[in-house]
Amino acid sequence: MDLDSLINFAYIVASILFIFGIKMLGSADTARKGNQISSIGMLIAVVAVLLTKGMDYTWIVAGLVIGSTIGAIAAKRVQMTGMPELVALFNGFGGLASLLVGWAEFAAHTDDSHIGIETGAAVVLTILIGGITFTGSIIAYLKLSGKMSGNAINFGGQKALNILIAVAIVVLGGIFATTGATWALYALIGLSLLLGIMAVIPIGGGDMPVVIAILNSFSGLAASAAGFVIANNVLIVAGCLVGASGLILSIIMCKAMNRTLGNVLFGNFGAATGKTGKVVEGEMKPASVEDAYYVLEAAQSVVFVPGYGMAVAQAQHAVKELAKILEDNGAEVLFAIHPVAGRMPGHMNVLLAEADVPYEQLAEMDDVNPIMNTVDVAIVIGANDVVNPAAVDDESSPIYGMPIIKVYEANTVYVLKRGQGAGFSGLVNSLFFRENTRMIYGDAKETITGLVTQFKD
Amino acid sequence: MDLDSLINFAYIVASILFIFGIKMLGSADTARKGNQISSIGMLIAVVAVLLTKGMDYTWIVAGLVIGSTIGAIAAKRVQMTGMPELVALFNGFGGLASLLVGWAEFAAHTDDSHIGIETGAAVVLTILIGGITFTGSIIAYLKLSGKMSGNAINFGGQKALNILIAVAIVVLGGIFATTGATWALYALIGLSLLLGIMAVIPIGGGDMPVVIAILNSFSGLAASAAGFVIANNVLIVAGCLVGASGLILSIIMCKAMNRTLGNVLFGNFGAATGKTGKVVEGEMKPASVEDAYYVLEAAQSVVFVPGYGMAVAQAQHAVKELAKILEDNGAEVLFAIHPVAGRMPGHMNVLLAEADVPYEQLAEMDDVNPIMNTVDVAIVIGANDVVNPAAVDDESSPIYGMPIIKVYEANTVYVLKRGQGAGFSGLVNSLFFRENTRMIYGDAKETITGLVTQFKD
Amino acid sequence: MKIFAPKETDPDETRAALDPLGAKKLTDLGITVVVEAGVGESSGHLDQKYSEAGAEVTQDRNAALADADVVIRVRKPPAAEVGKLKKGAIHISFLDPFNEPDLIDAFAKANATAISLEMVPRTTLAQKMDALSSQANLAGYASVILAASRMKTILPMMMTPAGTIAPAKFFIVGIGVAGLQAIATAKRLGARVTAFDVRPEALEQAESLGAKALRIDLGETKSEGGYAKEMTPEQIKIQIEAQAKVCAQSDVVITTAKVFGRKPPVLVKKPAIDQMQNGSLIIDLAAEGGGNVEGIVAGEEVTTKNGVTLIGLTNYEGLVPQNATQVYSANITNMIEHFLDEESKSFPIDLEDEILKGCVITYDGKIVNERFTS
Amino acid sequence: MKIFAPKETDPDETRAALDPLGAKKLTDLGITVVVEAGVGESSGHLDQKYSEAGAEVTQDRNAALADADVVIRVRKPPAAEVGKLKKGAIHISFLDPFNEPDLIDAFAKANATAISLEMVPRTTLAQKMDALSSQANLAGYASVILAASRMKTILPMMMTPAGTIAPAKFFIVGIGVAGLQAIATAKRLGARVTAFDVRPEALEQAESLGAKALRIDLGETKSEGGYAKEMTPEQIKIQIEAQAKVCAQSDVVITTAKVFGRKPPVLVKKPAIDQMQNGSLIIDLAAEGGGNVEGIVAGEEVTTKNGVTLIGLTNYEGLVPQNATQVYSANITNMIEHFLDEESKSFPIDLEDEILKGCVITYDGKIVNERFTS
Amino acid sequence: MLVLLLFIFVLAAFLGFELIQKVPSQLHTPLMSGSNAISGITIVGAIIASGAIEGKMGIILGFIALILATINVVGGYMVTDRMLAMFHSKKDDK
Amino acid sequence: MLVLLLFIFVLAAFLGFELIQKVPSQLHTPLMSGSNAISGITIVGAIIASGAIEGKMGIILGFIALILATINVVGGYMVTDRMLAMFHSKKDDK
Ligand SMILES: NC(=O)c1ccc[n+]([C@@H]2O[C@H](COP(=O)([O-])OP(=O)(O)OC[C@H]3O[C@@H](n4cnc5c(N)ncnc54)[C@H](OP(=O)(O)O)[C@@H]3O)[C@@H](O)[C@H]2O)c1
Ligand SMILES: NC(=O)c1ccc[n+]([C@@H]2O[C@H](COP(=O)([O-])OP(=O)(O)OC[C@H]3O[C@@H](n4cnc5c(N)ncnc54)[C@H](OP(=O)(O)O)[C@@H]3O)[C@@H](O)[C@H]2O)c1
Ligand SMILES: NC(=O)c1ccc[n+]([C@@H]2O[C@H](COP(=O)([O-])OP(=O)(O)OC[C@H]3O[C@@H](n4cnc5c(N)ncnc54)[C@H](O)[C@@H]3O)[C@@H](O)[C@H]2O)c1
Ligand SMILES: NC(=O)c1ccc[n+]([C@@H]2O[C@H](COP(=O)([O-])OP(=O)(O)OC[C@H]3O[C@@H](n4cnc5c(N)ncnc54)[C@H](O)[C@@H]3O)[C@@H](O)[C@H]2O)c1
Q1: CATH: 3.30.465.10, 3.30.1640.10, 3.40.50.1220, 3.50.50.60. Which one for A289-456?
Q2: How close is the Cα of B342 to the center of ligand 2, in Å?
């Protein structure tokens, strides 16, 4: 086999390793190994390219050493909490690198002849995508790290400006691809960088994770485009894999937030004329069944707090089953029964006895409140008034003074209810707005059954 | 765009359509559309290749017309029951066609120079895989259509002979690839055809569907190999897609039969010295939850027959839920309660009342037996004696004369039990061996919950 | 502060105002507790248990009445005993104030503070003192057990080798606290339960317990403060007719429909009763106030010509006296604990308080409750 | 063929051997059915219903006895009436043959065929005629309802604003048909149920109904033909001790342990009873044969010094007479239908038949049953 | 060139594996039959071979291959469609 | 040639879509981070560019690209591994 074939063969191997890597990253048991496998793929690809004949290694070695050092230090030093922004930063570097590779290929093309329309188009794409990725990621980084306000930034004429930029990019791209004019290239670079900024600033800090996922997908596409520029398979394959899987991932992330991708990216974008985004202090945070599953899976103590909604949903059997699963999973499970939960004395007892919940797991309010702050997860199933902290902390509330089950002291609280419905008393429940509370909307039985299914899969 | 690029572009489109086609074939709602999409892909590929410059269309048109006519007639005429063997036959044709394409390429290579080791190797693979596919499929066809005994055929020295053939193929393949000797080619063709026969005859008729799936995968690989011979992408991609998905499919099929692929293919193969396979008349046929799901999904009337096992498994709540889902799905659902089901009078009533099964759905034995032959699916949940046909048809049985619920008259019967355990009376239950009965082993609650999950997904 | 729990005077009353647990709770609060000897006899509590809980057991009822700061009992006091109270003493019990104007006047005259437990407002906060609820709850349970023990048939369905026994059919009219518990208990025993109430939200609650809700279109039937409004005669007529069919098919009819402060409506009339099967039962939980059933006699049992037995006990919760005493005692001790002034160990009457505003009838020689001052 | 169902002579017996439904079934089979006037009175069936079902209602008991080919009843007949039977007549009822050798002799002497329903073998095939099971089943239910109506407390747990009411604790000894139904009923009402039986498979069955199984290591305790074998005195001793603890914690103990053909073992002894709480109940379903409980008196109610009430009714199923009659009647009609010769409309006695071999005691002037011929 | 083809082959193989995840057993046969029709793609090779201008032997082989491949393709798609139509109509019934 | 590259691109895209099916939300960030590291594959391009023998401009650009890409790759893999290690040890705890 000649050297070229060998290198190409190595690329195939690297690509396969990337495929496995991504696949394995998608499941908890294999994720870490997947990451390692993909890193081996990367190593193979790098070694392979180094075998290319007729290279000057000076710069290469210098570049690798510098880059590795910086990367390693950053990765080691970063606080756990700082990881998301670091990923954003790295991502931006990747995008910029792709941009530069495209540019370099053009620059290396020293003779004055036109680089060809196909390569030209590839260069345009590389620069465009790479540029957006770079500045977009930087903005995301700034927002996440708090170096820039997390609020969505909107201003008048934003929409028009963006359209203008887009049109300009198309025109300039066309010019460059056909003529290879250097000025067009520079202009393109500038506009791409600008577009990245414009795209991300109107998005609120809370949506940044999705944005990073999208930009990650972009940085893959940028690499892929760079691959077209230099006609290199492994770039095309690996870049494209990342591009596609990143897109799917961002869609999944949106789903987990009960949003659509379009809503995240352009939610503020279109409607943005003068109106500034309002950040509600303490909002109701929805969660998906899947989110809850992962928290429950790791929980060591779980307290269920049933209310009238459990009766309406007839969720008692499902709840019993979930409790059983959690126990088998090593968690301590209690049912905290508030004396007035439901609509008749002993309402919850009737239901839980029907579902054959062991008596030992039924706890009275007074027994469970003292240990509530040691509880990992409290699951409020269609209860409302009986867990309303207003009874404790809002003297103006009509229920002030009523004893409640203090779920808000638990580490995490999931509240299962269908929507914004109030309880018997008709009061607003400030529990729902607490930092550690997540709302899982939907019929309680459906939700619980969903959780059970998660555990079974 | 030049013509070549156009053709290649068409190939890409065709490949994409194949990808969608296969994906959509995997799900009930989209399967038919998927097949149509993939057929459009095929049409595009054929049209594209016809655009190739410098072709003599005489033979092509003739071939297309003849082939289409035969194919269409065969497809129209075949009885529903004959479909599997027809698929086997088609598959064999596909394999043979690939073999011939490989051969033709070699034959067309008119000058005396060596065709090159790479192409040579590709030709060898094409012929080998194509040949196995062809004769293997023909044997499968003969076995399925009853033109040949479905029994596994074994004889002494089979193993040795197969090894011999394999070695010979490797050697001859090597010779041909390096020298391009025509005699080696002919020998290869012969041996490949022989290997196909040898591989399939030791496999019993019941396993033929899996064999066809494997051979289908092979015919895809043969096409892919042919693609390497003539350096054609669409052949490589489409063939390889079929090769890979066919393999997965055959693994899935094995799983559904509670077998492994190796067991199906070589189960009889290795151990085969003199002993002939015995076909048990009326065996207990296990089924998976998934199988049952698809039957239930389409069922219009379902009768549950609970027994003591439902009490042991405490499956009543899950059963109630499944019944609800089936009703919502449009099926009529009844619970047929045998008077002595369980271990005390009214045992089933206690459980079903606990699960709040509506009284209207509880049917007495005498009311349900007359309509049993109109029932699509009867689900026997941990009942045994009360559905034992021996009470009706075996005068020697100690329970002869006892009234039973005649589930065996239903179209399909699923029996949910943990294993081979007998009922209270300790008798063998001939219901389990009936043609229309499938056993779903495992705790009844697990099984029912599994079914519920299937419906929810 | 000295609290006295006399023995109930009504011979049919099996409950007591205080159980040993309650006595313990009060003494732990620093209150002196006195009970009359034999107070817990019929509810299963020996005098000795009260002593062990720190209470003083006295034989001298009159002395104790005259000495106590707070007197607690279940039923309204005999008129004669009101005068024996200390000036300014607090008397807590059911008082039936809408029907006992004379008794109220006697309290005012005696300068005693009369707290009527019926009048505790039905707010979420006051639920722990809500004796109407705590007793109605047990009454609902007891009514179904009574029915089950009186029926010639079983409640659950059974499909047996000797044929199928059909489930008993229950019809519950009025889905308040008692009605809900009756539904729950009958459902538990496997009966088929149909239920009706004028409050639509109550129907949803019945369904959450597995009953079939009978839906009758009656037009506007809003409720206020947890109680049903009185209906118009036309509405009642529509209701009676729609219910008759259900009654005819039912083995047991349990009625619990009260309207706060008024005579309960008569909802099951003779034509409906005449259509019922021989051996059926009608149990009226509103019998004391006049009953929801035509022909009911409070405290008695009547069998009609066609073999339907009408039961009109006045005290169903008394069938489970131990638990009834337990929760009644808890209601009262909760109330005392709630209002107790820790420092002075007294029960100050603050008429601005939401709860006291509702349930204090007389204070400082006057009738102070809005509902009775008109 | 003429079948006669006389009125039961025992005044405590509320059941009848035939209900109108059964009468209808028999007349539909072409059999002449005669019932004594008032036969269904106490089980809720008027004479008129029998007439409507095609039966003849007679006042003349003796004539009917002398005329009938088959006489059916619930309880064993008075000795005097055996002689009145027609020669060759078949008499179907419970006979208590192990304890009534004289009665059996009388049947043999009268040349009547005595079928004892207790002796129907417990095969799957014979279940439809198995009156022991059908009655025991209802007895199990009725015993729990009886307990619930006699207790001063409720069965289910309730966590209420007025405190938590603990669930009642039941202990069921003997998990046969009656025991299982008692478990099911108590569980339904929300009680905590512990259960014990010497047959290990019965423990699994109790668990399938949600009871806690008390497991006592007694060594070998096999069962035969669905019945428990008699245990050794040592085994009984171990059992009694292990049970005493559970009894002490229980509010209600229900015993159902019979051993076929022998006196029931005494399983709850005085030391255990002495440890029980004031107000607890012990209900003995084996009281008729001597009882599982020390101090039980068949047919009576005894309260011990420490306030434990022992109830030893002999006929719990009689508490739900309508259903008990329904299933008993079905058992008998099932038997007649099963053996009826369609042609000759007769009830031929084939002593080779598995079922008849078990339950026919006398035939053709002789005692034919193996168990009684020794 | 060969390397690129290999690349394509590898990717197609992975894609093929990933495409089929969970197939209900009722669809096993149609899926097999449908992908069998796709494997008739060798028809493209057969057309090229039989359309050649010279090389008698090759043309003849190609011609036979073409007939067989066409049968496979046309018959395969049609038979699959028939199966799926049956399946569908049964579902629509209810 | 370009056609083959396009072929490869298309197949890779489909494969990418199929690979990610259902990812637990806890893995969203690590997966993103891990695939971000893969997108650093542009390092290969950067090496080629910065290893060129002539064309100063190209080499400089390539050099910068190389540093950035290397940061992305090395940092990306390491940070992902840290995240996943944490995740794992938490799971093993119980
Ligand atoms: N226990 C008694 O004796 C008694 C008697 C009368 C009144 N009360 C009063 O009732 C209240 C009891 O409190 P609680 O916390 O049990 O109930 P609650 O405060 O009435 O709240 C019930 C909650 O359940 C939710 N819900 C209803 N159906 C649901 C379903 N299918 N799935 C999921 N969620 C559902 C409702 O929200 P969505 O609509 O958004 O889903 C509602 O917020 C207290 O105020 C008490 O005073 C009690
Ligand atoms: N009703 C009465 O009053 C009464 C009283 C006494 C006796 N009997 C007798 O009991 C029998 C009742 O018949 P039946 O059909 O209800 O029950 P059965 O004949 O006893 O059969 C029960 C079946 O359930 C299966 N099973 C046990 N646990 C299970 C679990 N967790 N999941 C799934 N399957 C489970 C067992 O098979 P595996 O072990 O393989 O799972 C067994 O074959 C009759 O023979 C009747 O005569 C009835
Ligand atoms: N806020 C609280 O926490 C609290 C406490 C206790 C009770 N409650 C609520 O108060 C309500 C009434 O409780 P209650 O049981 O004491 O009421 P109640 O005893 O006064 O009446 C019983 C039931 O009869 C119904 N009724 C009245 N007229 C009727 C008619 N013509 N036909 C049919 N039904 C009729 C009423 O609607 C009520 O449901 C319930 O909804 C209960 O949940 C609330
Ligand atoms: N084959 C059938 O179809 C059929 C029909 C009816 C009953 N049976 C079976 O027959 C068995 C007995 O039925 P039964 O209720 O009529 O029996 P039973 O009335 O004779 O006895 C009641 C129970 O007491 C138990 N017992 C005996 N000695 C005991 C001791 N020392 N301690 C504790 N428990 C003791 C017995 O094991 C039995 O479970 C049951 O298992 C029942 O399921 C079978």
Answers
A1: 3.40.50.1220
A2: 6
